[in-house]
Amino acid sequence: MQGIELSRRFYGEIVRPWLNAVAPELSHAAALIGYGSELLGFDDETSRDHNWGPRVHIFVTRDAFGTYGHRLVRDFTAIAPTEFLGEPIGWRNRPHPAASGDGAVGAIEHGLEIHTTEATLRRMLAIDGVNLNSLQWLGLPEQRLLAFTSGAVFHDDDKRLTQLREALAYFPNDIWLYKIACQWRRIAEEQAFVGRAGQVGDDLGSRVIAARLVRDIMRMSFLLERRYAPYSKWFGSAFSKLPLAASLSPLLEQALSAQAWEERGNALAAAYMLLARRQLADGIGASSEPVLGPYHERPFTTINADDLVAASLAGIEDPTIKALPVTGALDQVTDLTPVLEDPAAAQRMMAALMA
Fold it and tell me: Alpha-carbon distance 200 to 40, whole Å?
């Protein structure tokens, strides 16, 4: 049994009946969000060695948290079973401590946590609501947005948690187009270097650049499919489930395994063309026809990425977003974990980048 189903049953068979008995008046939502491979459905036997097991987050209002939060967690400790469906409910080998702080409480003895949605938004995304400006959206790493919007909601009395997740389910259209344009800019900067490095005998350098471009192609695929990309551990697994992966994967594998830089570059160029045609099919940049050809007078197969950047930007309606430098959202600029996993710092860095 995978973790989401285990937690769903833990809530339905243990926690919900107990809450109905001890606090029948308590309006709440029950969910599993935030962290864990089970939120994406990628948990397996190895996942069970940490941060895995019967657990559920109960979301209540701030007033209800003050009245019920600590008491319920404490009282559940006294009645909780030691295991559920053969799995221990204690926090075995978990590097994440039990929830504790403003608007969050848990216990190391079991997997029941009480939260407020306000504190969860601040902790996970450093925002106080979903009425966000463009810089706030660009400072939200996709892996953090995915952590909030993936997983599952098992119960929701007032629908607040559900509505927040729906509001953050994907980027607004102008932010999406801006990120697509910036992703083409990334490709434009390096696509010719695969051939140039190979041409001078630097095969290792050519392979490294090709691998970077493969990652950029995969990131573009998530954008075109309107899916948030997870962090590196599950990046390839999640990519393989995208509809675009069926046609792109053979080309990307060819680019990574090619022995000659010409074959490497041609495979990447074919992948660029697939992305560009998908973009056109979705109505993005209809004024720009994608073309493969040599890089100026040099014999490196590239795509007219600059035209695709401009075509993507042309669809943006918000003049504030249209006027931004074509550098990208924070997670297009850096993949440094201490930055992306510190939401407040991410927001500050995004503001400084665009200042």
Answer: 43
Among the listed residues 182, 129, 144, the one whose alpha carbon sits nearest the alpha carbon of residue 321? 182
Question: CA 15, CA 18: separation in Å to the nearest integer?
Answer: 5
What are the pLDDT digits (tens) for 81-130? 989 998 888 765 555 677 788 899 999 889 999 999 999 999 999 999 99
∠ Cα 350 328 312 (to 5°): 145
The residues near 264 (Cβ < 8 Å, ≥ 6 apart) are 194, 198, 206, 207, 210, 255, 258
315, β-bridge pairs: none
CA distances from 201 to 120, 121, 261, 262 (A): 52, 51, 9, 12
pTM more than 0.85: yes
Mean pLDDT of the chain: 94
**Radius of gyration, alpha carbons of the chain:** 23
